[in-house]
Design brief:
The structure is a single chain. This protein has 274 residues and is of the alpha+beta class. The chain has two domains: 128 residues, MutM-like, N-terminal (N-terminal domain of MutM-like DNA repair proteins, Alpha-Beta Barrel), CATH 3.20.190; 119 residues, Helicase, Ruva Protein, domain 3, CATH 1.10.8.50. Helix content is 27%, strand content 19%. The strands form three sheets. Strands 2-9-5-4-3 form a five-stranded mixed sheet, with helices on one face. A four-stranded antiparallel sheet has the order 1-7-8-6. The chain has a two-stranded antiparallel ribbon with strand order 10-11. Strand 3 and strand 4 form a beta hairpin. It binds zinc ion. Zinc ion (ZN) binds next to loops.
């Protein structure tokens, strides 16, 4: 699932190329992935509109189209955006494309999991995933006291709390592992067991981890914005490899899409079994 570093780079890349450009063609083959609140026929309605500057809200990219429409795209686990020349070979995973004079923006998905909504600007609040999420994980005005306050209602394991988007939006299963490693907090620690100092380390680790990763992704992902770059991560999916901080082997548990990776030496406690 794309998270803030991926999404920020996709956003920058596309803003340099398509902001201000007109959509001259819109094609299926599976436009039903787009849930439209704004028009019966999404494909017909977008033609002739210009892309505005793309925004990000949590894990959604928001594409202003003309003065009064927005495409909100949450790629979830299997959705991808691809920027290509119009005559580039089409993937079997193609759902729809928005094309300009000399480019295609294509939406690909392996398992129809993306949540894509076409709305009028005044309908954005009708999307529950956007309405209910917390402030952005990179909010420059974030304050530690507010962060601690937003965590307070939750009593479960800290990883699940941070990744669900209500405390800090834009973090998912991969970068939450990186953030917890940076903060030296076990993903399995209960929120109530964390000291103020540990919460402070967690709060500080969020922008540090995300900004450092964004810089790496910016160097390595474009122009293939449909391909995730994750091999540089320090712990996530690095089970068995040495911890970059202490050298102990990194532990890993969980089903494939929800793997948790952490260093038992640097991030002790929290796990009863094993
Ligand atoms: Zn370690």
């Amino acid at each position: 699932m794309p998270e803030i570093p991926d999404l920020e780079v996709i956003r920058e890349f596309l803003n340099d190329r398509i902001a201000g450009r007109e959509i001259t063609r819109a094609e299926g083959p599976k436009p039903w992935i787009v849930r439209s609140l704004a028009a019966d026929d999404f494909l017909a309605d977008v033609v002739g509109r210009k892309f505005g500057r793309i925004l990000r809200k949590g894990k959604d990219l928001l594409f202003p189209l003309g003065d009064d429409r927005l495409l909100a795209a949450n790629l979830m686990l299997t959705g991808r955006l691809q920027y290509t020349e119009p005559d580039a070979k089409r993937s079997k995973r193609l759902y729809f494309l928005l094309g300009g004079e000399d480019f295609d923006l294509r939406y690909l998905d392996d398992r129809s999991m993306g949540r894509i909504n076409y709305v009028r600007a005044d309908q954005l609040d009708e999307l529950r995933r956007l309405r209910e999420q917390g402030p952005d994980a990179l909010d420059p005005d974030a304050a530690f006291e507010d962060f601690a306050e937003r965590l307070r209602p939750y009593s479960g394991e800290i990883k699940g709390i941070v990744a669900r988007g209500k405390v800090a939006a834009g973090i998912g299963n991969a970068y939450v592992d990186e953030i917890l490693w940076e903060a030296r907090v076990s993903p399995f620690r209960k929120r109530k067991s964390l000291s103020d100092e540990e919460l402070r380390r967690l709060f500080d680790a969020i922008p540090k981890t995300l900004n450092e990763a964004t810089a790496v992704v910016r160097e390595r992902m474009p122009p293939n914005i449909h391909v995730k770059v994750r091999d540089f991560l320090k712990v996530h999916r690095k089970g068995g490899e040495p911890c970059p901080r202490c050298g102990a082997p990194i532990s890993e548990i969980g089903p494939n899409q929800k793997i948790t990776s952490w260093c038992r030496a640097c991030q002790p406690g929290g796990l009863v079994k094993n």
